[in-house]
Design brief:
By secondary structure, the chain is mostly helical. The protein has a domain of 70 residues. The longest helix has 16 residues. The protein is globular. The C terminus is likely disordered.
Length: 113
Amino acid sequence: MKSNITIKEKYGPPMKITNREEALEYFEECIEHSMSFGKTREEAVEIELANLGYYAGYYNDETRIRVEELFGCMHPFFGKAKNGTLSVNKVLKVGENISKKKTINIFKGKEDV
């Protein structure tokens, strides 16, 4: 993976992956890319899981669920797609809490929102 890459170039391809082996291979490339910027492996894994989950949030539920299952990720603010679509009020509440800088552990999913 080249170091100077756009978000679309990096996270677009995983949205088309359909098998676990290819997902694991691509995820490793993402981890190595993050580590090339001085992140530890642990930090890189957390970053890439959050980024994949966030990017998948722009896709339909079918794609989002597949990506979450293949990569073991989830949307960092809205949790897993298989848990159902959030209501508009819930989404607004999440945004409101974030804007107030409440602590939200983005790696746990649906926290105190």
